[in-house]
Backbone:
DNA sequence: GGACGGTGAAACTTCAGGTTGCCTC
DNA sequence: GAAGTTTCACCGTCC
């Protein structure tokens, strides 16, 4: 092993390593264990670098990604100006793309990231600097698996330019240095365990196997699973059969499969659940919620029901500060919840509250709260909001489909409206305006504030007025969607005629 | 004497990531 | 368990 000396210029080892990399005219990834740390680290490095015109331009692009830049956007832009960036799941997709692209082009020299990047595509980093090898887990701080360490280390070195790369782990003491060497440099990677063993996955598989007609009795089901990697690792066939039986019985109890004369068959609901690809338990909870629902259900109630599912996890964390506020909210909206509140002393209570917090966040989004405020209030970053919204959309669709099966016609439109509001992040009052192609949350709000509140108002509105609010092109498009043809004349006068 | 600002230590607070589905006018 | 952030006491300076 070769030894290199890195000049100590600051009190921060990582910054020193970055500066050394910079002097070598190379690029580096820095892996840390939290989003906060990633941002802080990028900032620390940026402080020691100078901005360049190219990077200033990239920073501008980053600021323009969201309608109104959030604190996080500004922070990222400030770092990027100097050629340093951070990268984690909370980043807006577009910003993530920009960061990756500019790193590949060599404009951005450093990316501090959570393990998001570890599994990513090949990028030209000469060094992979691994600052944190521990992460907060169930039992406090835990060492990350060797496999994951190797993933990160493997990011270093680009075959096109470098004949080698450097992976550097930062040890905080001599003792730790030995420990890390032992564990990661000389240690064996862990065995890969089959993920099939997790019950939600198992439930989903069992149902889809039966639904698709691959297996039609318990014996075949067991045979199928005994040939999987899971069974191979598990070895205990007796236990396997017991688990399978439990799954089967649950699915029957929930009404997703039927067993007649030893033959297994999916019910209509079961087939739909399998198609939707949601956890049968989630589907079961949805059905229970739907049956509990009265004539009218509240927006928050719907959101809470979907947030209380396994698919939505990880949910937002309930902090000590939130606790009382959430309890109060639970009390206020007591009648609205479709998944019943567990007793405070049960372990599910915390999850239930987390779901309430997540639902509140989504609800605020539908109340047109800005992303910056969501960050302040819930500590949820734009990228995470998007991820949750996607999930919520899928789950609401599933809920809608289940409501159809359960013949809850009266709830269908409420669920649909919730879905629409969530998708666009709008209050109820804007829904009519979204019927128009090209009109989203921003333009709809603009129209609304000018007194144009629904299709009829748009019909009545003068073209000039529409033009002033949403621009000529869009105004033309909107009018034409109403069957009105707009003839724009060169001199700036426009008229429109109706073609029914 | 009081307003203001800088500094550092102590007290809190919070903690990674990402795949699934449909078509609907 | 530890990094990062907030809070707060303390001190010096200026008016």
Residues:
């Amino acid at each position: 092993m070769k030894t290199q000396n890195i000049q100590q210029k600051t009190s921060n080892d990582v910054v020193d390593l970055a500066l050394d990399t910079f002097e070598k005219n190379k690029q580096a990834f820095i892996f840390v264990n939290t989003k906060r740390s990633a941002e802080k680290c990028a900032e620390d490095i940026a402080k020691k670098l100078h901005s360049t015109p190219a990077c200033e331009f990239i920073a501008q692009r980053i600021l323009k990604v969201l309608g109104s830049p959030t604190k996080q956007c500004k922070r990222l832009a400030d770092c990027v100006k100097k050629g340093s960036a951070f990268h984690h799941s909370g980043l807006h997709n577009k910003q993530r793309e920009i960061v990756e692209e500019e790193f590949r082009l060599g404009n951005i020299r450093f990316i501090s990231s959570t393990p998001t990047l570890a599994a990513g595509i090949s990028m030209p980093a000469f060094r992979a600097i691994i600052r944190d090898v521990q992460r907060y887990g169930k039992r406090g701080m835990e060492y990350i698996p060797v496999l994951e360490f190797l993933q990160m280390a493997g990011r270093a070195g680009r075959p096109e330019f470098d004949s080698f790369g450097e992976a550097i782990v930062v040890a905080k003491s001599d003792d730790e240095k030995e420990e890390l060497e032992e564990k990661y440099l000389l240690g064996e990677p862990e065995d890969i365990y089959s993920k099939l063993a997790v019950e939600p996955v198992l439930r989903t598989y069992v149902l889809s196997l039966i639904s698709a007609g691959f297996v039609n009795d318990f014996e075949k089901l067991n045979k199928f699973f005994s040939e999987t990697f899971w069974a191979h690792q598990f070895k205990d066939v007796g236990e396997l059969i017991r688990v399978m039986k439990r799954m089967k019985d649950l699915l029957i109890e929930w009404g997703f499969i039927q067993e007649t004369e030893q033959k297994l068959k999916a019910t209509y609901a079961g087939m739909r659940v399998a198609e939707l690809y949601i956890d049968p338990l989630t589907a079961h909870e949805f059905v229970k919620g739907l049956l509990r629902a009265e004539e009218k259900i509240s927006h928050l109630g719907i959101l809470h029901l979907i947030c209380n599912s396994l698919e939505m996890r990880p949910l937002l964390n309930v902090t000590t500060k939130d606790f009382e506020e959430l309890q109060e909210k639970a009390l206020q909206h007591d009648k609205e919840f479709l998944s019943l509140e567990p007793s405070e002393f049960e372990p599910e209570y915390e999850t239930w509250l987390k779901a309430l917090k997540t639902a509140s966040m989504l609800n605020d989004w539908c109340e047109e709260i800005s992303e910056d405020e969501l960050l302040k209030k819930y500590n949820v970053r734009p990228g995470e909001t998007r991820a949750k919204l996607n999930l919520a959309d899928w789950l609401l669709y599933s809920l809608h489909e289940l409501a159809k099966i359960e013949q809850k016609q009266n709830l269908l439109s409420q669920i649909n409206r919730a879905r629409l509001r969530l998708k666009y992040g709008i209050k109820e009052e804007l829904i009519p305006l979204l019927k128009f192609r090209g009109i989203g949350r921003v333009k709809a709000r603009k129209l609304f504030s000018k007194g144009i509140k629904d299709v009829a108002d748009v019909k009545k509105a003068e073209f000039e007025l529409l033009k002033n609010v949403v621009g000529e092109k869009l105004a033309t498009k909107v009018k034409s969607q109403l069957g009105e043809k707009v003839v724009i004349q060169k001199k700036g006068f426009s008229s429109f005629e109706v073609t029914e």
The longest helix of chain A spans residues 382-405. The two ends of chain A are 81 Å apart (CA to CA). The mean pLDDT of chain A is 87.
